[in-house]
Amino acid sequence: xxRNILEYVRETKELLATxxxxxxxxxxxxxxxxxxxxQSITVSxxxxxxxxKSCLVNALxxxxxxxxxxxxxxxxxxxxxYGEPSCSVRFFNGVVKEVDEAELSHYIxxxxxxxxxxxxxxxxxxxxxxxxxxxxxxxxxxxxGSYHKNNxxxxxxxxxxxxxxxxxxxxxxxxxxxxxxxxxxxxxxAAKFFFAVNxxxxxxGPDQAAYISYCRxxxxxxxxxxxxxxxxxSAKEKTGLxxxxxxxxxxxxxxxxxxxxxxxxxxxxxxxxNALSQIELYWKVLLMPPAQLxxxxxxxxxxxADVGEETKQTVHELEADRDIIIPGLEETLKVKLNxxxxxxxxxxxxxxxxxxxxxxxxxxxGEESKGAxxxxxxxxxEYLEETDALREDLDKTINDVLMYRxxxxxxxxxxxxxxNKMTRTLKRTARILQGVEEENPTxxxxxxxxxxxxx
Length: 455
Ligand SMILES: Nc1nc2c(ncn2[C@@H]2O[C@H](COP(=O)(O)OP(=O)(O)OP(=O)(O)O)[C@@H](O)[C@H]2O)c(=O)[nH]1
Ligand SMILES: [Mg+2]
Known about the structure:
Blueprint: H1 5-17, H2 23-38, E1 41-47, H3 53-61, E2 77-82, E3 86-91, E4 95-98, H4 104-108, E5 120-127, E6 136-140, H5 149-159, E7 164-170, H6 177-186, E8 192-198, H7 205-223, E9 230-232, H8 241-253, H9 256-286, H10 290-319, H11 329-352, E10 363-364, H12 376-403, H13 410-434
Parallel strand pairs: 1-6, 1-7, 2-5, 4-10, 7-8, 8-9
Antiparallel strand pairs: 2-6, 3-4, 3-5
Helix pairs in contact: 1-2, 1-9, 2-9, 9-13, 10-11, 10-12, 11-12
The chain binds guanosine-5'-triphosphate and magnesium ion.
The site of guanosine-5'-triphosphate has 22 residues, from α3.
């Protein structure tokens, strides 16, 4: 590509930001732009459950940071960067809690936090391991394919963020369907692969050679290449790690730019594909038969009324303590407001099949309120006002969407025109990213016909 991938990411982000329905993809494009500007590489260890991923991360860092075990363990991704030791848990509701490293297991161990009841999104850690120097972010992901589906979902969600991947196999089970599926999926997002075959300490020389040769042949077929390098290791006995480290140092640190560009190209393609399907869904809502639309609108009104009632109930309970100052109440209500936004988003997705996201502010748990202490009744009233504003905002947005159906106004035609223009630009960028379209073709001489406005 002649133009820099960063330019495409920036342009796409600006284009997506002009539409009120593409908030989630705009946020992804913004994060991608930031990552490219920072030149930081994310390397994830991924694979089926119990392959020894967490053991490998501990061994590479030279510290037993992550919980490991014989039963399914890791339930959330842990991102580890270079820096003075720190550890914080990020929850889905936007709360970030600083924790002691020794407490980590309480949050990301399937056995201690079953089904991720605590709602942990991921963990951010920093440690002074030399291996992490030069902007490398190392990630331990949950195991895929165990009975605990939440771990599989969390791992797949994280694969999208990886630039390079250590794909973890193990000699105790030959490559299976689940692993083939993980590999197929990861190829869509990651630019560089390292294949590690773990638990090599459990088999003898001739069996090792036969196993490695079998894996190599199969991986060549799956990756569509003539050769792949495999790293036989024992994360437990700490053997074979130097070879893997040398390859990681050589291939990652010296090729940061190439890897990031290739990874950004794959990710931008995915962002565009998601944005296009979002626009398609939007059209579906617009073209819904009137009876179905009436049903969906009435479901929306019911949903908004229900959440409104719940909020009133919460505030009513606070009113009982109206003249009391309750420590920590302000923070609790901020968390509740984030949860309220998540509730509205999932309601719209359920009713209209349209992805809808509010930005969730990151909240530090237990942070001392800077201002004076406030009465419970005062905070309750503010909370009610904010949730009412959110409900009205959602009602208005959906009504704006319906305005598209009113064929009389010039405004409607303009908006449809803009959406179509956006669709064409996104499709063209996707084709350039795939290398099937020139970057600077001669401009089309055909004017756009108003009769071609609908996709
Ligand atoms: N013999 C042997 N056992 C290992 C090796 N590496 C890991 N194990 C064992 O394999 C089990 C699983 O290790 P983990 O690191 O928890 O595996 P994981 O892939 O992170 O597991 P999940 O997070 O549940 O997906 C533990 O009992 C480890 O002691 C190895 O190289 N050799
Ligand atoms: Mg693990």
